[in-house]
Design brief:
There is one protein chain. This protein is of the alpha/beta class. The protein has eight helices and eight strands. Strands 1-2-4-3-5-6-7-8 form an eight-stranded mixed β-sheet, with helices on both faces. Helix 2 packs across helix 3. The longest helix has 16 residues.
């Protein structure tokens, strides 16, 4: 069942629930510029056997509202969007799974709204403001080059080709890349949104309010950090650094590595990722 969630300033978010209606709610928070329909069916099915799974389109993705000007909202606004989705579905407390940018959003929820979270799972993410730490590795230069092209003019077929190439680089080299599978995924995303123009609004996100990494030591919500060894955006030791900052000795985060995983939640890693999350939520 899907619905629209109306936010302030005329923002409308598309959201959908599936899985076990009587299960504990689990909110999926997607990476930057990614629609909620990009989650692999295999992951939704596995999580949905136990949980009432809720996914949604970030602002400027999928069927959610489009901002007039890039950069008019920030990561903290996206965190408020996640809470609004939970409210719209009548969810008081949920397990939250955030990937990449979704992991940063989940960290803000851990700090500001721990009463709304049963558990948190942070996947392919980095600690708040950790990206500014010179000791941590930067993204793959090939990705940085490709990101400079994100808004270049392309026809629909060229846009599909660009997105598949983007997924290839995000996927990393730890396992075979399924180009046809990712092309089908992007065709589904385009059909869902009704447009094939570049999705780049989150490139301009306001990052004010993210300088809070030191506060993670006080987190008491059970937290899982999932490391992707072949992640080209937040390569090791980003996840290890994140896990070490959460809860410290009193409530330490648990770190799990998924061999072969890059910065993409593909069908190939959906099984191991679901197993790790379900072990945590259980």
């Amino acid at each position: 069942m899907h619905r629209y969630v109306d936010r302030d300033a005329g923002v409308r978010l598309w959201a959908e629930e599936c899985g076990a209606p009587s299960g504990e709610p689990l909110l999926l928070v997607a990476p930057a510029n990614q629609s909620g329909v990009a989650w692999p069916d295999e992951l939704l099915t596995a999580l949905g056997r136990r949980h009432r799974v809720i996914r949604y389109d970030h602002r400027d993705t999928g069927r959610s509202g489009v901002a007039e000007d890039p950069g008019e909202y920030g990561v903290t606004d996206l965190a408020a969007d996640a809470l609004a989705v939970l409210d719209a579905f009548g969810v008081e407390r949920a397990h939250v799974v955030g990937v990449a940018l979704g992991g940063l959003i989940a960290q803000l929820l851990l700090l500001d709204h721990p009463d709304r979270l049963r558990t948190a799972s942070l996947v392919c993410s980095t600690a708040l403001r950790a990206a500014d730490d010179p000791a941590l590795p930067a993204p793959d230069p090939a990705l940085l080059r490709l990101w400079t092209e994100v808004e270049d003019p392309r026809d629909d077929e060229g846009e599909l080709d660009w997105r598949v190439e983007h997924w290839r680089l995000l996927h990393g080299t730890g396992s075979p890349f399924d180009a046809a599978g990712f092309r089908a995924l992007e065709e589904r995303v385009i059909a869902h949104s009704g447009r094939a123009d570049p999705v780049a609004a989150h490139t301009y996100l306001d990052t004010t309010g993210l300088d809070r990494g030191a506060e993670l030591a006080a987190v008491t919500v059970p937290t899982l950090v999932v490391e992707a060894p072949d992640d080209p955006v937040h390569p090791p030791p980003h996840s290890e650094h994140l896990a070490a900052r959460i809860g410290r000795t009193a409530h330490p985060a648990r770190l799990v590595r998924i061999p072969g995983m890059g910065h993409a939640v593909s069908a190939a890693v959906a099984g191991p990722l679901a197993a790790a999350v379900l072990a945590h939520t259980g």
